[in-house]
Design a protein that fits this description.
The protein is built from 14 helices and 31 strands. The chain is of the alpha/beta class. α1 packs parallel to α2 and α1 packs parallel to α8.
Length: about 600
């Protein structure tokens, strides 16, 4: 049985956060370059990404760059230069959405299919594999059986999100921001309309809900489903959060590292980590300590889950406080008042079981209190909280120093020991227990020296230095780079008609789809709207700007598929309104999907 390599994939807003993710246990990190990443506020220079690569690769940690926006024709040359630069500094793969990249003049760097490719079924996944993608990120809305079906039909690693904020729409298929504000989510400019408060009305104008965050979802937390996802065939577990700070990334990465390691260690060799090194952290990881809107398993367990949204607030819920003694001076707390309005305040001090806050407030007895800022926790997280090291076996003889490390790297360093009869006892092993600021820790030590042999400390120190330098050089020269997979151009795309939801924004993407049998290809909405600016002459034809498996009717207890919920006191169609933004709702009950029309 060949063990399957398992990858914990962490987000990084910048190089410093990427390094912290690696120290806390990530097997791979994904980071945005200076342009063409789907998070404009998380861009990094080539020099900064190289700093991440140089830190990551000694641990066999991979670095993926997000080049996952759609690309316009006049940007093709810039994307080609960017990918060449990323390849030259040693980036392992680029995560892409735009199929035009497969027709660009690129180096043989591996390509990963972004979640914006909207891969929901085995047919789409198989196509992406045959098109040359080395790893496929699945849509977040899938159940474990659906994920298993996809994994059975491909041989490349399958990647799923396991933690963090959820887009309410299928990723890559949300055009609400573009259609209402001229800010394209597919260009990294999402206005996060889904986090706004909306009023829900029926066809008669009757108000069914007022100022509720009807499209705002709780945060994903699949930590209790990792074993099932592994059994389904998932190999890469992705944490969302390229806009999150270092404290968040440290905590969540360390938590999932511990969860995965427990499963790997008890798997009888079926699973192994895809990187090297052990991370030792100085705190107890706890997802509730970091920003969260409450947690959900989303659609992993059922196609019609309940309680997946966060309609009262899109802000962090933090952790539930069961007793005032848990609070510290300076903590931030929140609660919902009698009108279900979200309130927050700062704890100045605790006085005889009473909260003395930064402003006068009366919190009714029995109110659930959430801590959204733990000052003691943040003080801890602002310190150095992890160290990552690899084991090393050493054997020393009068003529050589031999070493083998966790990566399988083996070196032999000549040693001309000035051996003398011992004038004092000497612990040779102890001399190799100290590796200073290197990434090594001694596991096994052996020697052919007799106990009455003495080597000057200066020679031992020089031997250690030459050994670690030789290991670093050997590890760098043997780093296992993988090349881009072959594209099979005769493999057909699952459909031959593409509407604007397929985001075809350049001539190369059009050529790619044509090569794979597509006959009717509509331009991306961004092109129809004048490259990001809504034209005055924009077509009046109503279009679907969002498709989601989140259903407002189901959250209201009015699911049309449930016989007990067939009767309701409102008339279709429903619509939602926020300021000057209005969307008509429609419900495809056969597919359990809701559409927003503009």
């Amino acid at each position: 049985m060949t063990p399957r390599k398992i990858e914990l994939l962490a987000p990084a807003a910048n190089a410093d956060i990427a390094i912290q993710a690696i120290l806390h246990g990530a097997d791979a990190v994904y980071i945005g370059p200076s342009s063409f990443g789907a998070r404009k506020n998380a861009a990094n220079s080539i020099e900064e990404i190289k700093r991440v690569v140089d830190f990551a690769h000694p641990f066999r940690v991979k670095v993926y760059a997000t080049v996952n926006t759609i690309v316009y024709d006049d940007e093709i040359s810039a994307v080609e230069r960017l990918v060449r630069d990323l390849y030259m500094i040693g980036v392992d793969a680029v995560i892409v959405q735009d199929m035009g990249l497969l027709r660009m003049d690129l180096p043989p760097i591996q390509l990963h299919a972004s979640t914006q490719c909207d891969t929901r079924d085995a047919a789409k996944a198989r196509f992406l594999q045959e098109a040359g993608f080395s790893q496929i990120v699945l849509a977040r809305e899938l159940s474990i059986p659906e994920i298993a079906e996809i994994c059975r039909n491909v041989t490349v690693p399958v990647e799923t999100f396991v933690h963090g904020a959820l887009c309410v729409s299928y990723s890559g298929c949300c055009h609400a921001s573009q259609a209402t504000m001229g800010r394209s989510a597919n260009r990294g400019e999402c206005a996060q309309i889904c986090r706004l408060p909306f009023t829900l009305k029926d066809a008669d104008g009757k108000t069914l809900a007022t100022d509720r965050h009807l499209l705002s979802l709780k945060d994903f937390n699949a930590s209790q489903r990792l074993g099932q996802l592994l059994e389904a065939g998932v190999s890469s577990f992705k944490i969302e959060g390229r806009l999150k700070d270092a404290s968040y990334v440290k905590n969540i990465v360390a938590y999932y590292r511990q969860c995965l390691d427990r499963i790997i260690d008890s798997s009888d060799g079926r699973y192994i980590r895809s990187s090297c090194g052990i991370s030792e952290v100085t705190f107890t990881p706890d997802p509730a300590k970091s920003f969260n809107r409450g947690f959900t398993h989303y659609f992993l367990d059922t196609s019609r889950p309940s309680d997946i949204s966060s309609p009262l607030t899109p802000k962090s819920m933090g952790e539930v406080i069961n007793h005032i003694s848990q609070l510290n001076n300076g903590d931030g707390i929140s609660y919902f008042d009698a009108r279900n309005e979200y309130k927050g305040l700062i704890v100045n001090r605790i006085d005889h079981g009473r909260i003395i806050s930064n402003r006068p407030v009366a919190i009714p007895k029995g109110t659930i209190i959430h801590r959204t800022l733990d000052v003691q926790w943040e003080k801890t997280m602002n310190k150095n909280t992890a160290r990552r090291t690899m084991w090393l076996d050493v054997h020393i003889t009068p003529h050589s120093l031999q070493a083998r490390d966790e990566r399988g790297v083996e070196i032999t360093v000549p040693l001309n020991a000035d051996c003398q009869p011992a004038v004092r006892p000497q612990d040779l092993r102890g001399s190799f227990d100290r590796f200073g600021n290197t990434v090594y820790r001694l596991r096994n030590f052996s020697t052919s020296f007799t106990s009455d042999t003495f080597i000057p400390a200066s020679q031992l120190a020089d031997a250690r230095r030459r050994m670690t330098e030789a290991l670093a050089l050997a590890a760098e020269s043997t780093y296992p780079y993988a090349l881009r997979d072959v594209e099979h151009k005769d493999f057909p795309f699952p459909t031959d008609k593409l509407d604007f939801h397929y985001n075809v924004a350049n001539r190369l993407a059009r050529r790619f789809y044509t090569d794979h049998g597509c006959k009717s290809i509509q331009d991306a909405l961004e092109l129809e709207s004048g490259k990001g600016n809504i034209r005055e002459s924009q077509p009046k034809q109503e279009i679907s700007v969002m498709t989601t498996r989140h259903c407002i009717l189901r959250e209201m207890g009015c699911c049309l598929k449930e016989s007990s919920h067939q009767k309701h006191s409102f008339r279709m169609p429903l619509s939602i309104h926020s300021g000057n933004r209005h969307f008509r709702l429609s419900f495809d009950c056969k597919r359990c999907e809701m559409h927003l029309w503009k």
